[in-house]
């Protein structure tokens, strides 16, 4: 305010000084054009020039504003539409979270045409259509999202695969995921969804091929990967049926990565498959190789199930017992083989030692059966009660409701 006042005072002083100068100096200006002659004082001429300059400047400014008016109107309208699209996007998100899917889709798609982020509108509207069970509408919206921003093609494809998996559209999901694997073969989420779809359709051969990538990219927890691996191995073994033999089982086993063939859970499953296929010698060799690499109770347990000559297996087990006299799994396996040979004394001794060292209901039940066979009924009842206490859920009858009057 003060600055403007000072400027106004300076302008007044300058005007007064100029007027005084023109009054003192006098002089005139004469302009002749063809037959026309214009003569005026210098002061009036200067004023006329200033007035003409101001008029031209004003006219040019008005013309510029007139020419720019349509563009400014369009910009304002576009700005209003953009702000409206932002509001509709927020409203659509809220409605989607609240489960009002039809309203959410209407708000999201109604303003997608003039939004700065049409991709978000289409993707969220596709989720809303999925929630309403409108599969074709969902796919159309995903196509629109892909067209809105081709750089987001992988993200759009991942969302489509996720929605197809959520809708249990397994064949469509596998087709989408197959395309995604070509574009991003090591994508963590693609691998996870593909594993889930393959499990659903029981494509265990495909799962076995996928497992190395799943482990390398850590797409699933290790325990879940092991469960998938064991189930896939089981299914491939079961698929052999009566044709299972050492060669066919060996081919399946060697198809596993070398690092996975050291897993004791898989080693035990393979050994049992060999036993079921009447290949106990191969199973015994496999178990001994595994136990040399690492001592594992589950492999010892399977060794105790070998249907080879009982004396031969028992001697091997007792040899190990000399080195590991307190190993409950080894004592249990030796007891089973001693019982196969009907050598009840060692069987009883090994079982009693195993029960004393490990709270295993299976071992306690086997000891109870042995006491029954030996006619020691009181000891048998005590062992049965011990087994029930160790595993009350697995050994108890269902709860009996009181009879109604």
UniProtKB/TrEMBL annotation:
<dbReference type="Pfam" id="PF07219">
    <property type="entry name" value="HemY_N"/>
</dbReference>
<protein>
    <submittedName>
        <fullName>Heme biosynthesis HemY N-terminal domain-containing protein</fullName>
    </submittedName>
</protein>
<dbReference type="InterPro" id="IPR019734">
    <property type="entry name" value="TPR_rpt"/>
</dbReference>
<dbReference type="InterPro" id="IPR010817">
    <property type="entry name" value="HemY_N"/>
</dbReference>
<keyword id="KW-0812">Transmembrane</keyword>
<feature type="transmembrane region" description="Helical">
    <location>
        <begin position="42"/>
        <end position="63"/>
    </location>
</feature>
<keyword id="KW-1133">Transmembrane helix</keyword>
<feature type="domain" description="HemY N-terminal">
    <location>
        <begin position="27"/>
        <end position="133"/>
    </location>
</feature>
<comment type="pathway">
    <text>Porphyrin-containing compound metabolism; protoheme biosynthesis.</text>
</comment>
<comment type="function">
    <text>Involved in a late step of protoheme IX synthesis.</text>
</comment>
<feature type="repeat" description="TPR">
    <location>
        <begin position="361"/>
        <end position="394"/>
    </location>
</feature>
<keyword id="KW-0997">Cell inner membrane</keyword>
<keyword id="KW-0627">Porphyrin biosynthesis</keyword>
<keyword id="KW-0802">TPR repeat</keyword>
<keyword id="KW-1003">Cell membrane</keyword>
<dbReference type="InterPro" id="IPR005254">
    <property type="entry name" value="Heme_biosyn_assoc_TPR_pro"/>
</dbReference>
<keyword id="KW-0472">Membrane</keyword>
<dbReference type="InterPro" id="IPR011990">
    <property type="entry name" value="TPR-like_helical_dom_sf"/>
</dbReference>
């Amino acid at each position: 305010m003060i600055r403007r006042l000072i400027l106004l005072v300076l302008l007044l002083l300058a005007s007064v000084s100029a007027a005084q100068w023109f009054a003192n100096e006098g002089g005139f200006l004469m302009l002749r054009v063809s037959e026309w002659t214009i003569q005026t004082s210098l002061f009036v001429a200067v004023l006329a020039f200033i007035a003409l300059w101001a008029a031209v400047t004003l006219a040019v400014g008005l013309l510029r504003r007139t020419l720019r008016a349509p563009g400014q109107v369009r910009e304002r309208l576009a700005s209003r539409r953009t702000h409206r699209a932002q509001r509709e996007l927020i409203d659509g998100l809220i409605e989607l979270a609240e489960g009002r899917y039809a309203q959410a889709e209407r708000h999201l798609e109604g303003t997608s045409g003039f939004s700065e982020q049409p991709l978000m509108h289409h993707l969220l509207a596709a989720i809303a259509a999925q929630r309403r069970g409108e599969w074709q509408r969902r796919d159309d919206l995903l196509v629109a999202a892909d067209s809105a921003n081709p750089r987001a093609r992988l993200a759009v494809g991942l969302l489509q695969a996720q929605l197809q998996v959520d809708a249990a559209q397994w064949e469509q999901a596998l087709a989408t995921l197959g395309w995604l694997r070509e574009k991003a073969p090591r994508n963590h989420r693609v691998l996870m969804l593909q594993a889930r779809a393959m499990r659903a359709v029981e494509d265990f051969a495909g799962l076995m091929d996928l497992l190395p990538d799943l482990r390398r990219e850590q797409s699933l927890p290790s325990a879940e990967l092991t469960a998938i691996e064991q189930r896939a191995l089981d299914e491939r073994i079961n698929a052999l049926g009566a044709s299972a033999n050492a060669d066919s089982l060996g081919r399946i086993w060697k198809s596993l990565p070398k690092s996975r063939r050291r897993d004791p859970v898989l080693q035990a499953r393979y050994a049992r498959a060999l036993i079921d296929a009447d290949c106990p010698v191969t199973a015994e060799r496999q178990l001994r190789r595994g136990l040399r690499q690492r001592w594992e109770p589950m492999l010892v347990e399977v060794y105790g199930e070998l249907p080879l000559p009982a004396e031969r297996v028992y001697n091997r087990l007792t040899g190990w017992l000399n080195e590991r006299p307190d190993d409950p799994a080894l004592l249990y396996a030796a007891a089973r083989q001693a019982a196969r040979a009907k050598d009840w004394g060692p069987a009883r001794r090994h079982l009693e030692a195993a029960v004393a060292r490990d709270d295993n209901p299976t071992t306690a039940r086997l000891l109870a059966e042995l006491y029954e066979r030996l006619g020691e009924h009181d000891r048998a009842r005590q062992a049965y009660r011990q087994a029930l206490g160790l595993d009350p859920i697995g050994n108890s009858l269902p709860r009996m409701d009181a009879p109604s009057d």
